[in-house]
Every structure is written in structure tokens, then in C-alpha cells.
Design brief:
Blueprint lengths: L1 H14 L2 H45 L21 E2 L13 E2 L18 H11 L24 E6 L11 E7 L14 E8 L4 E4 L1 E4 L4 E7 L4 E11 L1 H11 L7 E8 L2 E11 L6 E6 L6 E6 L9 E6 L3 H8 L15 E2 L6 E4 L30 E4 L2 E4 L10 H8 L2 E7 L1 H13 L13 E6 L4 E7 L10 E3 L6 H7 L7 E5 L10 H21 L4 E5 L13 H16 L5 E3 L2 H6 L10 H15 L46 E6 L1
Parallel strand pairs: 19-21, 19-23, 23-24, 24-25
Antiparallel strand pairs: 1-2, 3-4, 4-8, 5-6, 5-9, 7-8, 9-15, 9-16, 10-11, 10-14, 11-13, 12-13, 12-26, 14-22, 17-18, 20-21
């Protein structure tokens, strides 16, 4: 009995032994640790599995992702840069109105070859992919993206599908795929292109309309207006980075056009600097406030030492566009306006094409098939403004007459006062019309600031008035007694008759003006016209548009700024009843080098367009060229040299010189 009791006590003592308790605690800790490790491993496995599923889903959507971010795979036969959606607009070729998808925009292609069939899964993956903050780009060499390069840019014919199937009347649709110097497709738009289709031997040509899809691709449209061989040309004037600087910095830059003001009173003469100020303040300067042409913009001159402010006789331009452009262009941006980034031609495969005659054997587009509207205000802009053929302009904007003679011009302008205001390009219009009416004297057309001709019997008066405060590339003396603001001419026009036609050409001499001052100037012209039309509804105001000038590297950015001015004109005068004559495409399409002063053959056709706008219904123009409407090229007999110090007389100051301005005061 005692032995059994002792054994039981020994067993109980064994269980309570300290070493046993330690072992039990260790076993509990080890077991808990193992369980925790298993839980962590299981959680990690699930996270990794979810990650792999996500990567696989994205790869199925975007595989393979090229450096340009395009979607190209065997299962998805589509390209986000060349996939097109039908437009609601209609035309002879409906595919010409197809627009590419924007960067990052994704749509499920019609054929997936069975790879993905669940629409809800596709939509959810698209939503997930669009949340990515960046588009991945990679190439073998680590470089930054370059600007658009003309040498690597690709041009493809979209329609017609076959180069051998181009006929008279077809609208050619090309796709421009902009690429950088490494051959990588650009994914942004904004490049400034100039394109045309020309046949110099046929004196034929048409300008391209280029639509920016804002994703690195552009649609270029041209009209095949004539039968024969033609050469397609495309020029990269400025890459988008240069255009961005022009739009945001140069356009609204701190422009300060400068003139040399020449003061004269009797035999005393003085010269001081003059400036155009917009919403500025100054001290001890002569201020000249235009009557109604400008409000926030003032013309001011440094006060002469002895002569009064009222003795200002004239001004000479003391600043020029190349110098102003260079002053505002920062060093790091100069590469955008030089070398391969400035007016470079694009090599186009199959750029030499042959246009075949129509099925009805017509060599040009028959006018009776076009159903064009009559010329007038607020006309829509078609895909093509027209085309040249055999030296005549065929408008596709409105129904015009290509040729004219003295009798038909008199019929149109009888009992009318025509005033051409503006620069030397408008003076070319005056000279052409004066010659057509047989009242012109070519010897005084060059470098003249005021010209007037009268045809008494039909009661026709035509005149040219130069606009003041213009900037010139050369220091030409502008006599303040011979120039007037357009606003003043419009407001004074009803003094003798309401049958007035006033032509305004507000562009070539204003590229160095502060942009707000330029828009203010346009706005006051519009307001003056609206005011006079209340009294004289017969008043006709014609806006003559700018045109591309040339490709001289000394005039960087000028053509683009002229284009911006044209957009401003359209915006300011839209719906006001003015007749906007757009000659940009007309002049660029002419198969000859671009110049500020286009040849007489072009000016004569511009005058035919002008007369068609003035008299759209009752004007019966001759369709057969005669000796009256063929202009001989200028010769040494009718070209005068610019005025020099020997042949230019500076007139005495008169009261008329100060009539340009309402107030003359010293600040």
C-alpha cells in the first residue's frame, strides 16, 4: 500500500518537474511559429498569383507594346494610329472623312480570333489599362524623344486605293505619319505643314488642306483638278515644339516696334525714337492718340529737344522682324528654327502621279457639275479652295469668273467708289484694276502712299491709301500727311456716296505689333463698318487675307504668324457681313516660287476673284482672253527704284499731317 502511494507521488512530482514545463512551453511556441509562417506563405502566394493574373490580362490587351505605344498583335489586327472611325460628313469619297483614334483611346476591334470573347472582361481591362499614368516607350539606345523629322516622316495614299486609278475630280487623301529622327512615330500633333500638287508645265496646281488629328498623324487632302502629270510636295515648316513657342511665347511676347520719328518745323529738323505702347505708362514723351482706330494702344515718341510734338512729319521703321524674332528667341529654342527643323521637304514615294481624264473625257472639272454658291460673306471652307490650270484660277469656294475685260469691269463698278487700304500687296490690286480700266500709270505705282484714278463717264473712282504705323524691313520714310487709318476711311466714306467698296489688308506690316494691339485694331475696323452700315447698307467691306511669303531662313516663323493673323481676321469679322477673300491657298498653289509680291498673272486672277465677290449675279465676264486683259510682265521702263535721299522730298509739316490723331500731348 505504501509502495503504491509512493509511486503515485513520484509520478505527480515528475509532471511538476521544472524541465518538463519548459519543454511544453517551447513546443507551444514552435507550433505557433509554424502556423504563422504557413499563414504568411499562403498570403504571399495569393498576392503573387493575383499579380501574375493582372500582368497576363494587361499583356493580352496591349501585347506587344511598341516604342510608340501602338497596339499591334496577331490576334488584334488594328493600329491605334491608323484605325479610323466613320464621320457623319459626306463627300465623293466617304473614306476621306475618317478620323484616327486619339492617343490612349481604345476600342475593341471586330476580330479577336477567339483570344478574348468576354465583352465585360474586355471593358474592365480597358478601364484598368487607361488608369496607367504613363505610356511606356523603349528603344535599344536610351534617348529622349526627338522633334518631328522630315527625313523619316512617312506619307501614304489612303484613297483612291490605287495610284493608277486617279482621275480628274478625285479628292486625294494622304496620311502623314510624323516620325522623329530615330524613326519613332510621334504621338502628339501641332506640326506646321505646307503641301501642294503642281504641274509647272501646265501652269497648274492646288494647295493641300491638312487636318491635324493631334496624335502624330495628319490627313492631307488635294483635288485632282486637271489631266496630266503632277508632282506632290510636302514641307515641314515647323515642328510642333517650335509652333508651341510661336503660339505661347512669341505671339504674346513683349513686342516693341520702334520707329525714327522725324520732326520738322520750317528749316528746323529733329529725330527721336517712337514706340507703340499697349496699356503702358511713360513720362516726358509725345503721345499721339489715334482718333478711333485704337483705344488701349498709343503711339508715343521721345520728346524732341526744341521742336513741339505737333511737328511730327513722318516716321521710318527702325526695327525689323528678324531682329525682333532673334531678340525674343531663347538660346535653347534656336535649334527648333534651324537646320533640319526649318522648311524641309518630305520624300514621298509615288510623289509623281499621272491624273487621267474623266469618264466623260473632260480634262478639268466641269463647272456645271459643282453647284457652287454665289460669292459673298461667310462662305464655308471646303476641303479645297480651288486649282490653277493653264494660268487660270478655278475656285471651289464660290462661283467665280476666271477672266475679265474692261467692259465687264465697268459694268460691275459703275457709280462706285473703291478704296484700297493697306500695304504694297493691296497696292498691286489697285494697279491691276487701274490698268484693266485703262486709267493706270505704272510709273507711279511703286513706293506710293496715296494714288487715285477716276473714270468719269461710268462714275468710277478708285484710290489707294497706305496705312500708318506699319513696320518695314527697310527704313522707308512714311509721310504722315499721305496715310490714314482704315477706321477713319470707313467712317468718312458716306460723305459723298453710300456706294463704297473698301478693301482692307491687315497683315504684312503688323507682325511685330503686340498681339492685343493687333486684335484691337481689327475690332475697331469691324465696329466702324457696322456703324456705317446703319446709314449706308450698300457699303461693302472686303478683307484680303495674308498669304505665305517665302522660305527664307531670315524670316523664321513669319508664315506661321501670318496664318495666325488670318485666323484672327476670320474670328473678328465672322458674321459681320464682310467679304473675306482668302488667297492663301490660291497663291501657294501657283507653280512658281513664293514671294511677297506675287507675279501679275496671280494678281490679275485675284482681281477676277474680287470682282466676282462684288458682282456675283449680274456680271457677265468674257471667257476669251484679249489684249485688254493680258498684262505684260514688268520691264525696266515701268519699274522705278525705291526712293533715296536724292529723289525723296520730305514735305513741310501741314495741318493735315496731324489729322491722323485726335490728341497730341506731352506726358
Amino acid at each position: 500500500m505504501d509502495s503504491v502511494l509512493v509511486k503515485k507521488l513520484d509520478v505527480n512530482m515528475l509532471h511538476d518537474h521544472p524541465s518538463k514545463k519548459v519543454w511544453i512551453r517551447k513546443r507551444t511556441i514552435i507550433t505557433s511559429t509554424i502556423i504563422i509562417c504557413l499563414i504568411i506563405c499562403l498570403f504571399g502566394f495569393m498576392v503573387n498569383l493575383k499579380r501574375e493574373e493582372t500582368i497576363l490580362a494587361i499583356n493580352n490587351l496591349q501585347e506587344p507594346l511598341k516604342p510608340n505605344g501602338m497596339l499591334q498583335s496577331n490576334s488584334i489586327q488594328a493600329d491605334s494610329r491608323t484605325q479610323y472611325l466613320s464621320s457623319s460628313s459626306s463627300d465623293t469619297h466617304q473614306e476621306d472623312h475618317l478620323l484616327p483614334l486619339l492617343p490612349g483611346q481604345r476600342t475593341r476591334p471586330p476580330n479577336f480570333d477567339g483570344v478574348i470573347s468576354d465583352d465585360s472582361l474586355v471593358d474592365s481591362l480597358q478601364m484598368f489599362a487607361n488608369r496607367a499614368p504613363f505610356v511606356h516607350h523603349s528603344i535599344d539606345a536610351v534617348t529622349s524623344f526627338d522633334v518631328t523629322c522630315a527625313a523619316t516622316t512617312v506619307v501614304k495614299l489612303a484613297s483612291p486605293a490605287d495610284y493608277e486609278a486617279i482621275h480628274v475630280g478625285d479628292t486625294l487623301h494622304y496620311i502623314i505619319e510624323a516620325k522623329d529622327s530615330y524613326g519613332r512615330p510621334r504621338t502628339i500633333g501641332g506640326d506646321f505643314w505646307l503641301g501642294a500638287l503642281k504641274s509647272p508645265h501646265l501652269i497648274a496646281g492646288t494647295a493641300a488642306k491638312i487636318i491635324d488629328h493631334d496624335n502624330g498623324t495628319y490627313s492631307m487632302y488635294l483635288t485632282a483638278g486637271w489631266k496630266g502629270d503632277a508632282m506632290l510636295e510636302l514641307t515641314l515648316a515647323h515642328p510642333s515644339e517650335g509652333v508651341h513657342w510661336l503660339k505661347t511665347t512669341y505671339k504674346y511676347g513683349d513686342h516693341l516696334p520702334i520707329w525714327d520719328g522725324e520732326f520738322q518745323l520750317g528749316n528746323a529738323k529733329e529725330t527721336s525714337k517712337c514706340y507703340l505702347m499697349y496699356d503702358s505708362t511713360w513720362n516726358n514723351m509725345c503721345e499721339y492718340q489715334p482718333k478711333k482706330a485704337l483705344k488701349h494702344t498709343k503711339f508715343v515718341c521721345d520728346k524732341p529737344f526744341t521742336l513741339p510734338c505737333e511737328s511730327l512729319a513722318g516716321i521710318r521703321g527702325a526695327s525689323n522682324f528678324p531682329g525682333e524674332f532673334s531678340r525674343l528667341l531663347p538660346t535653347e529654342k534656336r535649334v527648333l528654327f534651324s537646320g533640319e527643323h526649318l522648311y524641309k521637304n518630305v520624300a514621298i514615294p509615288h510623289g509623281f502621279i499621272n491624273i487621267k481624264e474623266r469618264t466623260d473625257n473632260q480634262f478639268t472639272i466641269p463647272k456645271d457639275t459643282l453647284q457652287l454658291p454665289l460669292c459673298g460673306p461667310d462662305l464655308p471652307s471646303p476641303l479645297s479652295d480651288g486649282y490653277w490650270y493653264n494660268g487660270q484660277w478655278n475656285s471651289l469656294v464660290c462661283d467665280t469668273k476666271q477672266t475679265y475685260n474692261k467692259a465687264s469691269a465697268i459694268q460691275c463698278l459703275e457709280h462706285t467708289n473703291v478704296v484700297f487700304t493697306g500695304d504694297s500687296t493691296t497696292r498691286q490690286w489697285f494697279a491691276s484694276l487701274a490698268k484693266l480700266l485703262d486709267v493706270g500709270h505704272p510709273e507711279d505705282h511703286d513706293r506710293s502712299f496715296f494714288l487715285e484714278r477716276t473714270l468719269a463717264a461710268p462714275d468710277i473712282n478708285i484710290s489707294f491709301v497706305f496705312h500708318p504705323l506699319s513696320t518695314h524691313p527697310k527704313p522707308i520714310f512714311v509721310n504722315m500727311s499721305q496715310v490714314r487709318f482704315e477706321v477713319d476711311i470707313i467712317l468718312d466714306s458716306p460723305r459723298y456716296t453710300c456706294n463704297n467698296v473698301i478693301v482692307v489688308s491687315p497683315w504684312a506690316h503688323f507682325i511685330m505689333w503686340p498681339w492685343d494691339a493687333y486684335v484691337e485694331w481689327l475690332t475697331h475696323i469691324r465696329d466702324a463698318m457696322i456703324e456705317v452700315k446703319r446709314q449706308c447698307p450698300e457699303l461693302k467691306v472686303v478683307i484680303k487675307s495674308p498669304h505665305a511669303v517665302n522660305k527664307q531662313t531670315t524670316m523664321k516663323g513669319r508664315d506661321f504668324m501670318f496664318k495666325e493673323m488670318m485666323h484672327a481676321m476670320r474670328e473678328v469679322f465672322q458674321g459681320s457681313g464682310v467679304m473675306f477673300i482668302d488667297i492663301w491657298d490660291m497663291d501657294y498653289a501657283y507653280p512658281a516660287p513664293m514671294e511677297l509680291h506675287m507675279p501679275d498673272e496671280v494678281i490679275n486672277q485675284e482681281i477676277a476673284l474680287f470682282l466676282s465677290y462684288l458682282c456675283p449675279e449680274n456680271m457677265q465676264l468674257s471667257l476669251i482672253p484679249t489684249s485688254e486683259n493680258i498684262h505684260l510682265p514688268p520691264t525696266s521702263e515701268n519699274i522705278h527704284l525705291p526712293p533715296t535721299s536724292e529723289n525723296t522730298q520730305q514735305p513741310e509739316t501741314s495741318e493735315e499731317q496731324m489729322q491722323l490723331f485726335k490728341n497730341v500731348k506731352v506726358e
